[in-house]
Every structure is written in structure tokens, then in C-alpha cells.
Description:
Elements (H helix, E strand, L loop, with lengths): L3 H17 L13 E6 L2 E7 L8 H9 L7 E4 L13 H8 L3 E4 L11 H8 L3 E4 L3 H7 L1 H9 L3 E9 L17 H13 L2 E5 H7 L14 E5 L19 E6 L4 H9 L3 E5 L4 H10 L4 E4 L3 H9 L5 E7 L27 E8 L2 E7 L10
Parallel strand pairs: 3-4, 4-5, 6-11, 6-12, 7-8, 7-11, 8-9, 9-10
Antiparallel strand pairs: 1-2, 1-3, 12-14, 13-14
Amino acid sequence: MSNPVYDFDSQMMLRCLELARRALGRTSPNPMVGAVVVQNGVIVGEGFHPRAGEPHAEVFALRAAGSKAQGATVYVSLEPCNHYGRTPPCSEGLVAAGVCKVVVGMVDPNPLVAGGGIARLRAAGIEVVVGVEEEACKKLNEGFIHRILHKQPLGILKYAMTLDGKIATSSGHSSWITSKNARAEVHQLRAACDAVIVGGNTVRRDNPYLTSHELDCHNPLRVVMSRSLDLPEKAHLWQTENAPTLVITEVGSNPSLQKILQSEGVEVLELPFLTPSQVMLHLYDRGFCTVLWECGGSLAASAIADGAIHKILAFIAPKIIGGSDAPTPVGDLGFNNMTQALSLENFQWRVIGSDCLLEGYLPVKNQFLLS
């Protein structure tokens, strides 16, 4: 038998998440947060956090509610902050507004908050309920949570393969393995990420765009890893009008091409040693939460071995192309028997059009054992 109170709380929290998603890909290093103000069972104010440096979701929701916030219930997908950062603490704003109850989706993993906001509200006599739609709240901000807990962005390896495990034919042709529905899902995934990474082989072979393909959607930073900088002078990724591009290479590689790329508006970064973990460290320093790897098998294996991949998204098409030398999604990891295999955790299957999507996570204990 359902609980009408919890059902309403759940409905309001799902509305918070719907609002939060309006800022998809735009809030890093902050989380995506939505807030709803309810008076006598009616929504009187809503808001979401649009980007870092701007007010938090609670501020917008309280502004929209105005005097109707007095004695109201506020729903917020993440614990209100209780510290001074770029903006004042939201817990104080809720207290000042005179709300009587706050329903929180999840506790903030940030040590600067970590229960402090909830404690402040309760100390002011405000009733606080915690954990409504908690798993959905955590899933929306899994990149933010990973960044806070592990001091690095969440690395997601995405690939599309045939039923026999190939990402292209023996000749290298790969358009298209999956259906339009699956490709649309990938475009939405890019919009939710801060950066998307490929290697030089992908640029040379596929000449990709790596955009979300939607005018009003966020485009991630497109990152190319290339030690030798043996890249074409003309490529879709060098067109930076709609999406920025960063090329990361090693010190002294191909100076003439570096100048050409920079003249096109491409950012070039030289590192002493180019490794996936060093790239992820740089992207962490830029404030990124979620990084999508859309690379070939060699770089994918290197990224897994270097602890840069934490989540797998495998699109599987009901097709068979064969080919003993056709490329596969992950190259050599140096494993010789099945006991070494990395088994995904918390995985789930989903059907998208004619394809299947497997989503799962590499075990934390294994993520850094290969490096």
C-alpha cells in the first residue's frame, strides 16, 4: 500500500531533478541542483542552479515564492550548503525565509557541507527529511560525487560494437554500427559531460565532430591526445566556432602543426609525459566532473590500466561482421587468464531502438591496480 505523503514527496523531488537537468553539463565543478517551494500542497516557487558562480537552486526558488515561502515546505535535491563560497550559505536563506520544513534528496558529500546544512536547519527549528529519491539524486550527480571523493573526474568509456565484439570492419569502416536512437543517446551523453577524449587515430580515421548536435545543448570540451602530434592540418575538431578543442601532446612535438592549430583557435597543451592519468589530472584542475572517453581500443586499454576509466557504456548492435583483425573496443591489458578479467559492478541493461546498452562500473579496488 502506497504512502500518500511519501508519494507526494517523491513527486516533488523528481520535479527537483527535472529542474536540475536544465543545467546539464554547465555547472561543474558544482553539482546540478533543483529546488521547489510548496505551500498547502501547491508549488509556489521553483529554481535550479544554472552554473558555477551564480546563485544556488534554493535562492531562485525562494525568490519565485516571495512571501509565500513563509511556513512552506522546500524540496531540494542536494543538501543546502552551510558555508560561504562564491555565494552565501543557502541554509541561512532558508532560515531567513521562515520555511517550516525542508525535504532533502541526498547529503552533500563535500566535506565543507557534509551534514552541516541539515544541522543548521534543525538547530533553527526547521523539520528536515533526508533521503527522498536518494539514488536518483546520486545518479544525476555521480560525476560531482566522484570528483569530491576521489579528487578526479568520473571517467566514462563509451563504445559501440557489433554482437561479435567489433567496433569497425577490417578495413576500418565503422559508420554506422548502431541505430539512430542509440546515436541520439550518445549526443545527449556528450551534452552531460565536461569533456570528450579521443586519440590521434580517431581523428585521422573518423574525422569526428564530437558535439551534442543540438543548437541549445551544451557542447563538451573536445580533447585530442597525441604524443607525436601526427594529425591532419584540416579536421572537424579544429573548427572551434561551436565547441572548443584542446590538443594535448608531449613537449616539443610538431611545432609547426601547433602553430597552425593555435591559429584556428585550438588550445594546445604540452606535457612532459602524456598519459591518461595526467590528462585527467589536468581536467580535474580545470574544474571538470565528468569526462567521456570515445577513443579506440589502444587508448581505451591504456586509460583503463591508468585508472582513468570508472564507468562503461557499451552499445551493442545485433550485427555480426567478423574479421580476425577487425578492431575491438579495448586493446591489450596484459591479461592471460579469465581470473584477471575486470567484472563490472552495479550494471544494468537497457534496450534503445534495435540496440542494447550495458551500463556498469569498474570495481574501485581494480581501478588503480593496473597502473
